[in-house]
Design goal:
The strands form 4 sheets. A 3-stranded antiparallel sheet has the order 3-4-5, with no helix packed on it. Strands 6-7-10 form a 3-stranded antiparallel sheet. The protein has a two-stranded antiparallel ribbon with strand order 1-2. Helices cover about 30% and strands about 40% of the residues. The N terminus is likely disordered. It has 3 helices and 10 strands, in the order βββββααβββββα. The chain has about 130 residues and is an alpha+beta fold. The protein folds into 3 domains: about 40 residues, no CATH class; about 35 residues; about 55 residues, Irregular (HU Protein, Chain A), CATH 4.10.520.10.
């Protein structure tokens, strides 16, 4: 089941067509209205293809560039350093305190350990672009 945030109803999506191999079109029936949503994920392979097509590097060079960039990002975050990419956003490593939890199957109370999480905050430039104001 998928929650349709705009309407606040739980609806059952069904795939109705596949215009692009990685795209999925969902048909959701909300109050007798049919709504189509395109759900596309940008994958590592698509990024490599975009660099190959737009920059002119070979596929292997594009793959190495993307791999190197992701490795730098992973190493930076693993050292608990924040990562700022101007015009895009900031990845922040935050501490989460230990807290109480519950196993939903057994209803048993648990203590969840303290952990670190990565939070992403968009830049003002990207936020405006996402909201079609820029």
């Amino acid at each position: 089941m998928k929650r349709n945030a705009a309407v606040g109803l739980f609806t059952k999506p069904s795939i109705i067509k596949n215009p692009h191999p990685e795209d999925v079109v969902l048909q959701i029936n909300t109050n007798q209205k049919i709504k189509e949503e395109y759900c596309m994920t940008l994958t590592k392979d698509k990024i490599i293809d975009n660099i190959y097509n737009q920059v002119g590097l070979s596929k292997n060079q594009s793959r190495r560039v993307v791999g190197s960039l992701l490795e730098i990002i992973k190493q930076t975050l693993a050292k608990e350093e924040n990562l700022l990419i101007s015009g895009f956003g900031k990845f922040i490593v935050k501490d989460k305190a230990a807290r109480k939890g519950r196993n939903p199957q057994t209803k048993e109370d648990l203590k969840l350990r303290a952990r670190k999480v990565v939070v992403f905050r968009t830049s003002g430039v990207l936020r405006k672009k996402i909201n079609h104001k820029g």
